[in-house]
Design goal:
The chain is mainly alpha-helical. The chain has a domain at about 55-165. Helices cover about 60% and strands about 5% of the residues. The protein contains seven helices and two strands, in the order E-E-H-H-H-H-H-H-H. It has a two-stranded antiparallel sheet with strand order 1-2. A hairpin with a 6-residue loop joins strand 1 (about 30-35) and strand 2. Helix 2 packs antiparallel against helix 3 and helix 2 packs parallel to helix 7. The protein is elongated and about 65 Å long. It starts with about 30 loop residues before the first strand and ends with a helix. The relative contact order is 0.13.
């Protein structure tokens, strides 16, 4: 009597002669499977990075970090405005001035030193305060915090104003 062996299985748990229905192996070694596992995108090659050195994942990370910083500082500015007892236009002016000051300090500490070391003609073409190497648009860097953190500022401003004046 012959013993029956279990059929060989591939990595997907199917018998060796069956292939998974929706799996298509990447045709390029630089292919990267995205988080949803259905879409395959090609990573930029070394030559493409030399031509256009902007990496979308890095710009997205920088944008998230900037958003977190702006949200945190907006809440802290709200606490400060509430404790100082600022009302009406003086409170909004306080928020605008300090939000722009935060953007300026971030630019001077993090963006300007690294962008000045790269003296390409493209980086100086759009002016001395160019942020295009690290962020999508200059508006996102300079004024995005005014919009992103406004709700947090109002919330903490009114909370601390009410606590101090009560």
């Amino acid at each position: 009597m012959r013993s029956r062996r279990a059929p060989k299985r591939n990595p997907f748990g199917l018998p060796a002669h069956e292939k998974p229905r929706d799996h298509q192996p990447p045709t390029d070694l630089n292919a990267l499977v995205c988080a949803d596992r259905r879409k395959i995108t090609k990573m930029p090659s070394e030559k493409e990075l030399q031509i256009s050195p902007l990496v979308p994942e890095s710009i997205q990370h920088n944008s998230k970090t900037l958003y977190n910083l702006q949200s945190l500082t907006a809440s802290l500015f709200g606490v400060s405005a509430g404790i100082l007892g600022l009302e009406s236009y003086s409170g909004f002016l306080f928020y605008i001035v300090f939000s722009l000051l935060t953007s300026l300090l971030l630019y001077l500490v993090r963006v300007a030193p690294s962008s000045s070391s790269q003296t390409s003609s493209k980086s100086w073409a759009s002016g001395p305060v160019d942020t295009s190497l690290y962020f999508r648009t200059p508006f996102e860097f300079w004024a995005g915090g005014l919009i992103n953190g406004f709700a947090g500022f109002i919330l903490t401003w009114t909370l601390f104003y009410g606590l101090v004046r009560a």
